[in-house]
Each structure stands twice: as C-alpha cells, then as structure tokens.
Amino acid sequence: MSTVLFKDAKIINEGPHKGTNQDVLVEDGRIIKIDQSISIDADVIISSDQLHLSGGWCDIGCYNGEPGFEYREDLGSLRRAASHGGYTHIAPLPTSFPPLQSSSQIDFLKRLNESSSVTILPIAALSQELKGISQNDLLDLSHSGAVAFSDIHLGTEGSGFLSRSLEYIRETGRPIIEAIYHPHHSDHGVVNEGAVSVSLGLPGIPAADEMQQVHRLIEQAVYSNGNLIIHQVSLATAVELISEVKGTCPIDATVSAMNLLHSDEVLSTWDASYKVLPPLRSEQNRITLCDYLNKGLISVITSNHMPLSKEEKDEPFGQSAFGASMLDLVFSVLNTHGQNLDHSQVIYGLSDGPYKTLGLSAPIIQEGEVANLTAYDPSLPAVCDTDFIQSKNHNTPYLNTTLRGIVLATFNSNILVQNT
Known about the structure:
alpha/beta; single chain
C-alpha cells in the first residue's frame, strides 16, 4: 500500500494545523500533503461524518503476560487490543516471567516491531527479577533501546536502592517508573477506605497510604534530582503535590482512565470488574481529578490494562483479583462517560503527554513528517461485546454496553490498520 488519504479530518494534536479540518495524504509512510481539499486516486480513503485525526496514541504501563502468563495476554493479543483501541505505541511494564531484563529480550521486541503497526517501547526491570536488590546493567539496557526502567512496585520498598538508581541513570535521560500499589501493600484492603467501604463491610485502602508513598518517592526524586514517573496516582492531592515539585526536578505522574470516570459509589453493584488498583476513590476526588486534567495538571492517561482469566475474576468480591481489561476501550469510555472532560486534553493525555513523559518526541501532523496517526469518530456507536474486545480476556465493567466513539484506523511503521 502506498497512499492513504484521510478525508476532511479535524486535526486534534499539537502542531500548525491544530483545530482545523484538513485532508491528509500519506505516501510510503510519510505525510506528503495537508490541504483543505486533496483530489487524488488514493489506494485507501479514510472518511467519516466526524473524522478526527491525532498523533498515534501511546500507553504507559499496560500488562503483558508473555512469557509466563500468556493465559492473560500475549504479545499478539496485546498488540491487537492496542491497535483496536487506537494505540500505535505501548510501553508495558516488565510483568512477564522472567521480566524484561536483558539486551537479547529487547532485541527480540525490536525485531517484532519491524512488522507491526504497534511499536512496543521496552520498559526494562530496574533490578534482577524485580527484587530491588541487584541492579541490572541499566546503561547497557538503555543503549539497547529501553525507554524506561521499573521495578513496578517492589523497588519502592528500598529507598536507598531507588535513590542510587535514579542517580546512576541520570545521564541516560531515561526515567524510572514506580507504581504505588500492589495487593500486598493494601493491608488486605480491597476498596477505597470511606463511607462506601463501611456500608459494604469491605476492608478499605486508606488515602493516607498513597500520600505516604507519594511523599516518599518525591523525597527520593528531589534528593537524587532523578527522572521519576509516579505511576497510577489516584488522589487529587497527590497530583497537586507532584505538580508543585515539577519545577524543581524531573518528576511526573500518570492517572488511570477509570479513576477519572468512576467513584467508589459504583461498587454498591458488587461488580468485581470495578475492583482495580489504584482503587476508585470518592466522587469529589474524581471531579477534582477531571478538573486537573482539563487544566493540564495531568498529562498522561493510562489504560491500567490488566486482563485476567475468568477464574481469577469470578470470585466473591473480596477474593476477586484486582484489574480490568481496558486497552480496547479507553477512548470509547472516556468519550462516553467523561462528559465533563475537555476533549483536546483527553487526546493530549493519550498522545503527546505519554511520549513527552517518556522523554520521546511526540508525533506531529505536518508535511514531511513520518506518519504516526490515530483516526477516530467520537460520534459513532460502539457495541462492546466479546467480538469487539481483542484482548484475551473480557474482565471489564463495560462488557455488553453501547459506547460512543470508535477508532477507525491507526497508521504506524508504514502499516495501516482499519477497524471494521
């Protein structure tokens, strides 16, 4: 395929054409012309009543189970779900067994990237086997192509280890990503501690636990002047605190889509699909998070994609595993349920924000640029059934509902993928 024409598309992301409707012509993987009207016999024409076009979306921290946990997700199903959800780049945490911790593993992913429309950005394990004891060869992993390092949650247990690691990799410009939550850190809590947990008789996860971890991580980042991403923040007060520190050291945060969309009040249905980490917080906290996104204080929206088997999820609420399958659905659910969210800020949180937070160049829709694109129509209905979801597992609260907003196509690595 040599030419693709995106017809009368509203340009959303940053760049000279932002907010305007344009025809965008792609030839051999590069944007060769942008004009209000292009007449050409293109190989493929992408059009829709309300076609929108942005730089390809990027997700930080989605779950990959290959190798070791392929029954949850493998690289093939992860890529299919990502493409279907509008993502051209994904940066999975090193959740496989063994974790991603060698140059040969990175080389393997890079070879797979050559033939895929979804580019995997390798996040390598900070320490051997994610134990927070022996540091991996971070410089070698960086030279091999690791875009970031993470021990997911284990590294936060050792303040000295994380501080030394932040100092050590400072010269590479690569960030360290640390998640706040792990099931064993919640002291057996399963939902946000508050009125809802009391009414349901469920053990709670206190907000103070998150703030304690955020304070601790900030102290280490400031001390080492290290590049740190605090992953999956759920509290508005934590976002405020991180925003205040941004000017003094390279620190940022990510926020899960579900924490923008739902409060713990939905748990009265006892639907374990809403049992996620970080937990859904209060309604006032959710409203404030949305306000902060609209104001630009939140620059990264993550899928928090955690596909789980039916056996893992179909347990009584207290015993059900944490997690929801989300990679297929993030845009559609934000567009459907996030009525108070600014559309351009949502797209920034899915596109420009994640790239920049990882220290990468965000895609630009401009003549001469390599085409890294996501095309979508926010007005079209999407029936979320088991055929719609491309992930291996369907543990999502949106199953068998009708959503609004469909990703029509993605273009990356000179590969066009159209959703039917």
